[in-house]
């Protein structure tokens, strides 16, 4: 399989409408999962590496050899502001694929954040700079940088298929993947779930004081 050249990925990257991403960004991942028949939820072992991290944006997909971050360095040259870099890293927990240096570069580029089917490091510093990162583990062990890697291809992420341009939403419950073609319909359905749960919660609280 050949690797598409970076310029082609940037030109052809099928990103979703920005307003749909903004609507999904306001919703809990749990409500979005419920709105997709409770599917599209990545492995629950993939969690925020600092408390309160959340992100939403179009997926810029990376496949990498486990424990190797060449693909992330390449992605930093091709991703656009607002993108979420989604890394299929084989579930490796032994080597951190990124830390605060890559986090700082992502801030410069205006990226929304990273979700890793692999590990991260420098978790405290990532929290201090406010760069959202979701990972399977944290470890001080650093990555190799030799590849191979692939950008902009379909990947499996935490057991969920991800195409470039699918919408990623992640919060303190974990990571959900919304297929790009369904994003507007899922936003409608998830807003309805959120409204219903808000009303039911208010009713539970009202009952308490009776
Ligand atoms: O050294 C690396 O490639 C990963 C790392 O810790 C950083 O990005 O800060
Ligand atoms: Mg570091």
Automatic annotation (TrEMBL):
Task: State its cofactor.
Answer: Mg(2+); a divalent metal cation
Top-rank EC class of the record's enzyme: lyase
What does the record give as the reaction this protein catalyses?
oxaloacetate + H(+) = pyruvate + CO2; 4-hydroxy-4-methyl-2-oxoglutarate = 2 pyruvate
Q: Sorted alphabetically, which InterPro entries does this protein's record hold? A: RraA/RraA-like, RraA/RraA-like_sf
Pfam families, alphabetized: RraA-like
Residue numbers binding Mg(2+): 122
Positions binding substrate in this chain are 99-102, 121
Tell me the superkingdom of the source.
Answer: Bacteria
Family that this chain belongs to: Belongs to the class II aldolase/RraA-like family.
Q: What is annotated about its quaternary structure and interactions?
A: Homotrimer.
Q: What does this protein do?
A: Catalyzes the aldol cleavage of 4-hydroxy-4-methyl-2-oxoglutarate (HMG) into 2 molecules of pyruvate. Also contains a secondary oxaloacetate (OAA) decarboxylase activity due to the common pyruvate enolate transition state formed following C-C bond cleavage in the retro-aldol and decarboxylation reactions.
Q: What is this protein called?
A: Putative 4-hydroxy-4-methyl-2-oxoglutarate aldolase
């Amino acid at each position: 399989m050949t690797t598409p050249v970076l310029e082609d990925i940037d030109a052809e990257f099928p990103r979703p409408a920005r307003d749909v991403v903004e609507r999904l960004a306001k919703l809990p991942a749990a409500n979005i999962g419920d709105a997709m028949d409770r599917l599209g939820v990545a492995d629950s072992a993939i969690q925020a590496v600092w408390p309160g991290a959340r992100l939403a944006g179009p997926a810029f997909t990376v496949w990498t050899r486990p424990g190797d971050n060449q693909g992330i360095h390449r992605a930093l040259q091709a991703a656009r502001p607002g993108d979420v870099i989604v890394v299929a890293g084989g579930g490796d927990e032994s080597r951190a694929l990124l830390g605060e240096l890559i986090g700082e570069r992502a801030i410069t580029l205006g990226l929304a954040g990273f979700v890793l089917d692999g590990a991260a490091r420098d978790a405290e510093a990532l929290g201090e700079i406010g760069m959202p990162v979701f990972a399977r583990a944290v470890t001080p062990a650093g990555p190799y940088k030799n590849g191979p890697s692939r950008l902009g291809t379909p990947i499996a992420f935490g057991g969920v298929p991800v195409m470039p341009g699918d919408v990623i939403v992640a919060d303190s419950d974990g990571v959900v993947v919304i297929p790009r073609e369904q994003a507007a319909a899922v936003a409608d359905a998830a807003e309805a779930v959120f409204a219903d749960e808000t009303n039911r919660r208010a009713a539970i609280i009202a009952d308490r004081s009776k």
